[in-house]
Design goal:
By secondary structure, the chain is an alpha+beta fold. Among the domains are: 22-68 and 153-243, 2-Layer Sandwich (Gyrase A, domain 2), CATH 3.30.1360.120; 70-150, Aminomethyltransferase beta-barrel domains (Alpha-Beta Plaits, 2-Layer Sandwich). It is 20% helix and 31% strand. It is built from nine helices and 19 strands. The strands form four sheets. The protein has a six-stranded mixed beta sheet. The protein has a six-stranded antiparallel β-barrel with strand order 14-17-16-15-18-19. Strand 18 (354-359) and strand 19 (362-369) form a beta hairpin. It is globular, with a radius of gyration of 21 Å. It starts with 21 loop residues before the first helix and ends in a 15-residue tail after the last strand.
Amino acid sequence: MTWDADAPLISIGPRVRRSPYFEGTRRYGAKAFTIYNHMYMPTSYTDPITEYWNLVNDVTLWDVACQRQIEISGPDAFQFMQLLTPRDMSKCQVGQCQYMLITDEVGGIVNDAVMLRLQPQQFWLSPGDGDVLLWVLGVAVNSSMDVNIVEPDVSPLQLQGPKSPYVARALFGDWALELKYYRLKETTLDGVPLVVSRTGWSGELGYEFFLRDGKYGEQLWERVMEAGKPYGIAAIAPSTIRSIEGSLLAYASDITRFDNPFVVGIDRLVDLDQPGDFISKKALEKIKAEGVKRRLVGIEMRGEALKETNPEFWPVSDGELEIGHVTRCVNSPRLEKNIGFANVPVEHAAIGSEFVVATPSGERQVTVCEAPWFPAQKTIPEGI
């Protein structure tokens, strides 16, 4: 997307929370924000293309404190976590993270989240935009399980990009390089309490720093920026371009509550044969047996380069019949193509299928293609 200086402004007030890094983001040039989980999140510092190249070539720092954590603890915490998700939780060890779906009684996706298992009966959920805390509290009320559910004082920062391991090592030492993908470590940095994980939403190498006391927000922000100076660190917003290239789906855009895991192509997170029970088990069994009528597919869109992401769903048509919509679409600088996702009937989901998308600048031809275009980077190269 482009940043429009004449776009409507967001008024700052106490109804929406500021992150512990808010002042730091302003000092480093944040000029546009959105509201995400009732908190201000930066969406632009320079421009999307510059920030994209910062991310894929060097190292970047993101204020994602809007990923408000939900802590689930207590004697029945493990059993309760399994109730929320169709993913088999028994395979997740203490010190491990898992990407998971939270599903409802009809198989719809309430949200997606990264789960951190800190202790045998202590979990953090790091969800996308949506009132997941209220859903979890509602499930707990009707579960008869002994669990304690709170929003702790935890605020994530993401350190992302191919040079992020250099910065992490400068901050924490060699263990930061030894930390495996989707693993976590509880630690401190100059007395600041943190959980560090090898996770992120960039598709590049990266870490998340979960600050466990908001009063240290300014200190942590500046400490990371100082350590990153030799590696060209830049403060940026989450990159829509890179997320689409890596098929990192966005809740409320690519995924909605009207979709199920089979529609959006992440049914690998559904284990119907697990011993534990979960809310959507019967519904997902039925959906799997009957098959789905729609699919989320990767697309390439012809025509001149898009100058911004689609601000709304763009309708998809086959002849005179509207059959679906584009969820997100953007121009990839590396591919020099317009790429994205569309939600379409299964009969239009095969690779090579073509249809028409109505954009503000006119109709465009679209072809269904393989995705992701650039898979997520997971392995830290030797020799760093």
